[in-house]
Amino acid sequence: MEKNRFYSLPELPYSYNDLEPHISKEQLKIHHQKHHQAYVTGANAILEKLDKARKDGTDLDMKSTLRALSFNIGGHLLHSLFWPNLAPTGKGGGKLRGALRDTIEKEFGSIERFKKEFAQAAVSVEGSGWAVLSFCKKTNRPIIMQIEKHNTNVYPMFKILMVLDVWEHAYYIDYKNERAKFVDAFWNIVNWDGVNRRLEELLK
Ligand code: MN
Question: Of 99, 107, 115, 177, which sits most exposed with the smallest number of CB within 10 A?
Answer without folding.
Answer: 177
